[in-house]
């Protein structure tokens, strides 16, 4: 379906911000890759539910029962959105970072982890305690598959392995060949987790169809508010491991033993890793966002986003001082995430100028993907650079880029204002 739909209503679309010249302008949020504005529809759903929320799982009162039902229905809605297979588990977490740390905590002993150096730090760093192979940045999607296949085939001993890969880069927006990487992983007896933090807001993610073992994403990038995320996938490792958090909710029975210690029986459902009072509102908001995206339809949403991506890339290509960052080359398919550097400008000053003069919010820095940005900028592996805003003086060029990113709520005017400002 190539029909282009109108932008979906999001929060903050009427926010007016001050400009350096004393004027003011409606804020243009072009930083969706960091956190997308929540859909108005999600906010309305949450506001509709807010008066009724109560404690889940343990309460006998009517509102507790209602909240328990809504929490579990939210789990079912998100599982359906992700195309979960029968027997998969879906754990509500705090974020993608939390989801991948949870998966790292449940790896069977001796699991080898394979991860491309191009990943976001949330996917690069959680595997403490495991033996990790960092794979060099590929220059084509096909090279990514070849690199992974060789690394998996060469592993010794040939034991359990997990591959962690992003679906869409938070720096270049480029799509990774997830289905092919999953096939390569499985051909070599490995499992694969998809970091869908940037993919899920822009493309349908179907666990069964992509044939990945796990998916992780964050609500705040999927047009829901902060504080909730998801890890979904195969139940066996999740069931077999110690609870990620120990406490109430994860435990089924606790009793004193004759020797004075404690006997604990843990749940084997998702509750095993959700100890404490869960973020019911956050889960409900994610489910609402899933419903809203499904109803709007990814066909028209993707068509609209692709039109904006083409508009941005072709306009930036006409400005000789601008260099767009890309791993896979000009013809790679991207979501609405474009990073670039501008000759003669420090990225932090460029981003600050977009904000102060035009009311446009973008991000600058290394985007929590330091090795990738260093590779893209051709920097030495150990050169300096902070994650987040850089602190260089005017005229001095720090190792960083500017990132513009957009999504289902972005009106054409925001993109046109941005392109006019860059020009
Ligand atoms: N993976 C990718 C690809 C991301 O872009 C991000 C967020 N920038 C994360 C993981 C981490 O997400 P969160 O901060 O919500 O944990």
From TrEMBL:
<dbReference type="InterPro" id="IPR020578">
    <property type="entry name" value="Aminotrans_V_PyrdxlP_BS"/>
</dbReference>
<dbReference type="Pfam" id="PF00266">
    <property type="entry name" value="Aminotran_5"/>
</dbReference>
<protein>
    <submittedName>
        <fullName>Aminotransferase class V-fold PLP-dependent enzyme</fullName>
    </submittedName>
</protein>
<dbReference type="InterPro" id="IPR000192">
    <property type="entry name" value="Aminotrans_V_dom"/>
</dbReference>
<comment type="similarity">
    <text>Belongs to the class-V pyridoxal-phosphate-dependent aminotransferase family. Csd subfamily.</text>
</comment>
<dbReference type="GO" id="GO:0008483">
    <property type="term" value="F:transaminase activity"/>
</dbReference>
<dbReference type="InterPro" id="IPR015424">
    <property type="entry name" value="PyrdxlP-dep_Trfase"/>
</dbReference>
<keyword id="KW-0808">Transferase</keyword>
<dbReference type="InterPro" id="IPR015421">
    <property type="entry name" value="PyrdxlP-dep_Trfase_major"/>
</dbReference>
<keyword id="KW-0663">Pyridoxal phosphate</keyword>
<feature type="domain" description="Aminotransferase class V">
    <location>
        <begin position="30"/>
        <end position="418"/>
    </location>
</feature>
<keyword id="KW-0032">Aminotransferase</keyword>
<dbReference type="InterPro" id="IPR015422">
    <property type="entry name" value="PyrdxlP-dep_Trfase_small"/>
</dbReference>
């Amino acid at each position: 379906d190539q029909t282009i739909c109108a932008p979906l209503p999001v929060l903050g679309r009427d926010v007016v911000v001050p400009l350096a010249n004393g004027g003011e302008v409606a804020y243009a949020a072009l930083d969706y890759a960091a956190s997308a504005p929540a859909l108005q529809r999600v906010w309305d759903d949450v506001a509709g539910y807010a008066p009724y929320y109560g404690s889940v799982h343990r309460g006998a009162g009517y509102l507790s029962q209602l909240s328990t039902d809504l929490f579990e229905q939210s789990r079912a809605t998100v599982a359906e959105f992700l195309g979960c297979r029968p027997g998969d588990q879906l754990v509500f977490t705090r974020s993608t970072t939390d989801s991948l740390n949870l998966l790292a905590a449940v790896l069977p002993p001796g699991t080898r982890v394979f991860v491309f150096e191009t990943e976001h730090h949330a996917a690069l760093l959680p595997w403490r305690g495991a033996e990790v192979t960092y794979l060099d940045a590929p220059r084509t999607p096909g090279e990514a598959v070849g690199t992974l296949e060789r690394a998996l085939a060469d592993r010794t001993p040939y034991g359990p392995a997990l591959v962690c890969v992003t679906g869409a880069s938070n720096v270049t927006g480029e799509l990774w060949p997830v289905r092919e990487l999953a096939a390569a992983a499985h051909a070599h007896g490995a499992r694969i987790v998809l970091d869908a933090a940037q993919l899920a807001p822009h493309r349908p993610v179907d666990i069964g169809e992509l044939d990945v073992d796990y998916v992780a994403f964050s609500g705040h990038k999927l047009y829901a508010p902060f504080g909730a995320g998801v890890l979904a996938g195969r139940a066996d490792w999740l069931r077999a491991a110690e609870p990620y958090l120990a406490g109430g909710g994860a435990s089924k029975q606790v009793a004193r033993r004759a020797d004075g210690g404690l006997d604990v029986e843990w749940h084997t459902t998702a509750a095993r890793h959700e100890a404490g009072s869960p973020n019911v509102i956050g889960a409900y908001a994610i489910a609402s966002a899933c419903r809203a995206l499904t109803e709007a339809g990814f066909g028209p949403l993707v068509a609209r986003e692709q039109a904006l991506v083409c508009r941005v890339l072709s306009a930036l290509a006409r400005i000789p001082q601008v260099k767009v960052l890309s791993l896979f080359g000009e013809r790679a398919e991207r979501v609405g995430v474009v990073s670039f550097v501008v000759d003669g400008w420090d990225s932090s000053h460029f981003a600050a100028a977009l904000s102060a003069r035009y009311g446009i919010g973008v991000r600058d820095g290394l985007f929590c993907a330091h090795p990738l940005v260093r590779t893209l900028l051709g920097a030495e592996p150990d050169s300096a650079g902070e994650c987040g805003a850089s602190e260089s003086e005017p005229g001095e060029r720090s190792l960083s880029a500017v990132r513009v990113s957009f999504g289902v709520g972005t009106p054409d005017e925001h993109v046109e204002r941005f392109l006019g400002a860059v020009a």
